[in-house]
Amino acid sequence: MRALFDTRGNRALVWLGVVVVGLALLALPFALAAAGTAWVRIANFAILYVLLALGLNIVVGFAGLLDLGYIAFYAIGAYAYALLAGPHFGIHLPFWVVLPIGAALAAIFGIVLGAPTLKLRGDYLAIVTLGFGEIIRILLNNLSRPVNITNGPQGLARIDPFRIGPLDLSSTDRWLGLAFSGPLKYYYLLLLFVLAIIVINLRLQNSRIGRAWEAVREDEIAARAMGIDTTRIKLLAFAMGATFGGIAGGMFAAIQTFISPESFVLVESIMVVAMVVLGGMGNVWGVILGALLLSFVPEILRWTVEPVQHALFGRQWIDPEVIRMLIFGFALVLVMRFRPAGLLPSAVRKRELAERRS
Amino acid sequence: MLLELRGLEVRYGGIRAVKGIDLAIGAGELVCLIGANGAGKSSTLRAVCGLIPAYAGAVHYDGADVAGAPVYELPRRGLVMVPEGRGIFAQLTVEENLAMGAFARDGADAASDLERQFQSFPRLKERRRQTAGTLSGGEQQMLAIGRALMARPKLLLLDEPSMGLAPLLVAKIFAIVREIAAQGVTILLVEQNARLALEVADRGYVMESGSIGLAGEARHLLADPRVREAYLGEGAT
User: Fold this and answer.
1) How far does Cα A303 stand from its chain's mean position?
2) Which of chain B's residues have a Cβ under 8 Å away from the Cβ of A214?
3) pLDDT for B21 beyond 70
4) Cβ(B57)–Cβ(B8) below 8 Å
5) Which residue of A143, A177, B115, B204 has the fewest CB atoms within a 10 Å radius of its CB?
6) Could you give the CA distance from residue B147 to residue B216 in angstroms, rounded to a whole number?
7) What's the CATH number where B75 sits?
């Protein structure tokens, strides 16, 4: 598996691979659209999860700070977008203004969460971040009185889609004889964002900052003795992770056009952590794989569990939702049993686990 | 004086671990701070490099007051510490550990420095791609020292380099310390192994329950009956 991503190998082959994968990704939504627009939407959500997982990977994978409230930043980005580009306050700013605002707001909240928890590690940090995630969600649920800011549990509807001049990303356009539906256009935009975030992640990993994160994850005192400003570097991890969460949240609001606190429950945070852990903490490709698997597999199961039961038994024995989670959970257990460092583990993680066993 | 402590006091809660000590190290000196367990040696060293705050007193390093300066700031100014228990990055390779040492100077000419460390520590070169956690205690100590040297220190603080090592390795580590000093690096060596420390050092300070009891030329201290009795395990005859 490693050889697949080893760019020191045959360069021409690598570029060929990039072109093939690129073309496949460009063609994919058309194939999905043939199976139903629902699948394009599912793909879009999968990409959103990739964005989230890559953002969380900075915090968990690179800096080693276990964050169980990551979805809060997603929520902050989403609400920032919904409030500044929607009918609730009657503000309709364009997305290229709102998205950065949401990202910045999320980053600020990242620092707000990071600053008081600087001395915490592992389980203790996980508990505090978990609490933070819940606080944000409960706040969004209750900020409807006395002044109605978030509209409470009813959520915010009719959120503006992305518009670039005359181009509206939510409506269908015909170009070159091909139908480009709303989800299809969002797919390409999301792809662009994911590409940018992948590049940022890869660059970060091999940068001075990336090395500092690595040192902090290993031994904080030694890291400080090496001249690393551990406070700043940890806050930077929180802020950067939160920024990506905020951007993903903004996109989510625009694509969905409706958001409510229910979209930002604890399970969502855990899902994103699971994606990072399953794929391989600290390995960008692993994290992407984890995010795609955990977002696609449940959907595929959703569409197959019922027909399969009907074919086998002639009737439905078990509720599809139940069996879906059952298979899903079982698969996770198997992965953790046989590939504890994740599907595509990072080099360092692999060593850690090998050492612990020997 | 490269490093000068005046009336340094360290407290943990209400307990005075270091009770106002004076200590000075000139450029190029190898000075040891010896004393029994819990005498306040490590607390002194930690206060010097900012890991714990000084309750009172001044820490002057290289012409500036560094008391209260953040820890990460000091390696940039050439004050580098090898923490007690070595503090290596166990999951990183030997080479990655060493490279991390050059972090404070932005990794400039890290490659040539790396070669120099490998020359001084051939064992580390053999194991450059191995994770640091798999090294033996002595090798880990060498790695910790090599990593500190990657920062090109003016003043090197060594906290108990002999801790947990076999006698043969301890002797080796001290020979290395002597060599580093010969290359012009100023060293403050905090050590429980008083004899070895005094044998390599130019001067020594003897610390006793938070205060400096004795100070002077290392060879004089080695001959001092009080030191011999209390720290070198020889009966007063």
Assistant:
1) 23
2) 89, 92, 96
3) yes
4) yes
5) A177
6) 30
7) 3.40.50.300
